[in-house]
Write a structure and sequence with these properties.
Radius of gyration: 20 Å
Largest sheet: 8 strands, antiparallel
Shape: globular
Structural class: alpha+beta
Helix content: 25-40%
Number of domains: 2
Number of strands: 20
Oligomer: single chain
Strand content: 25-35%
């Protein structure tokens, strides 16, 4: 018997987050591990009158494609995927795995080549999403591999994830609308502001948000949600930041990342673990050393680090920044095959000032 929270999460994703309607072409992409959730999503899409395309994947298959491909093969991209990204109305991505370290043995250079080969569809997706032509939603399915990373039992992880997505509530949509209204107050306050300064034991950083929009993420971009975010002016970041938590990608944990910015670009970068991987990613392309995102996490139901960026970047009392591709809907001009998030705990000794006014202190908004 399926967990009723799986069914409720699928309902949220289809009918609230992406608002699938009759005639929509919906691409559902996910690992075989997530079949119970993908099956429920397909049911709700069909009941809404949509059409489904489903792409299945596995850790073993992805590893094989990257490791066995020549340089020419890894640069080739299947035309059918470009057609999908050009024409679908809704894209729902379900992250799940049997092994979170499946790609850890792949060289940094080959992984960078793999990412670069997919830059065109990444840019297509971001452009169409910003134009309102494509609704994109990503979430995770609780599985044993994620539970091990988080230091939880599978049941504990299920309870944690379904609580964070409000799938355990009688009326999840009301809960998301309540969060949206609260966050909109801060977004409205930030409209038309110019300069952000972050001061803490882990950061002394300034950046410009002049002419940029903050986005209110309350269940429409990611699930779980709980953040407000923007893309800083590309040449504006100056100062330094050392991140609280490991940055995890392709099975690698890059620990104690410290970045120094000058006129918008990372000029120095270091890490206590996997520094070579960090530097390879930053040299991926011209836009990889530029800030594509600055965000504040607002989901105070998420209180602990679980090694899942989708959840961790929403921790109530944190801020995060991403290097690489920015958001066109926020006003960003930066393009890159990279979009890599790094998170700072902001619950102690942290101030965020905007045009000299105190916006945020020790994990709480002050306006």
């Amino acid at each position: 018997m399926i967990d009723p929270r799986v069914t409720k999460l699928a309902d949220i994703l289809v009918n609230y987050s992406t608002e699938v309607k009759e005639g929509d072409w919906v691409l559902i992409q996910g690992n075989l591990v997530a079949e119970p959730l993908i099956n429920e999503i397909a049911k709700f899409v069909l009941r809404a009158g949509g059409h489904t395309s489903i792409q299945w994947g596995s850790d073993m298959l992805r590893h094989t494609i990257i490791t066995e491909s020549s340089a020419e093969q890894i640069a080739w991209f299947s035309p059918d995927k470009q057609i999908l990204y050009d024409q679908i109305d809704v894209f729902i991505m379900i992250d799940a795995t049997t092994n979170t370290r499946a790609l850890a043995g792949i060289s940094s250079e080959k992984f960078a080549e793999f990412q670069m080969a997919r830059r065109s569809i990444m840019e297509t997706g971001m452009r169409r999403s910003a134009a309102g032509e494509l609704r994109v939603m990503g979430t995770r399915y609780p599985c044993a591999a994620f539970a091990q990373d988080a230091g939880m039992s599978l049941q504990e992880l299920e309870d944690f994830m379904y609580s964070a997505t409000f799938a355990d509530r009688d009326d999840p949509v009301q809960a998301w609308n309540t969060m949206k209204a609260e966050q909109q107050r801060w977004v409205d306050w930030l409209q038309g502001k110019n300069q952000v300064v972050v001061r803490s034991k882990q950061a002394d950083l300034s950046l410009s948000i002049a002419g940029r929009n903050f986005i209110n993420d309350a269940g429409k971009q990611n699930m779980p949600s709980g953040e407000i975010f923007t893309s800083p002016v590309e040449d504006s970041a100056n100062g330094w930041v050392q991140f609280s938590y490991p940055a995890i990608v392709a099975g690698r944990e890059v620990e104690q990342v410290r970045l120094e910015f000058k006129d918008g670009r990372v000029v120095n970068a270091s890490a206590a673990k996997n520094e070579d991987f960090l530097l390879t990613m930053l040299d991926m392309d011209e836009g990889a050393r530029v800030l594509g995102e600055f965000a504040i996490g607002t989901n105070y139901g998420i209180t602990r680090f679980t090694k899942s960026i989708l959840y961790d970047e929403k921790i109530g009392g944190s801020f995060h920044m991403a290097l690489g591709a920015g958001f066109p809907e926020a006003g960003s001009l930066n393009k890159s095959a990279l979009h890599w998030d790094f998170i700072c705990d902001a619950r102690q000794d942290t101030e965020i000032l905007v045009d000299g006014e105190l916006l945020y202190k020790d994990g709480k908004f002050q306006v």
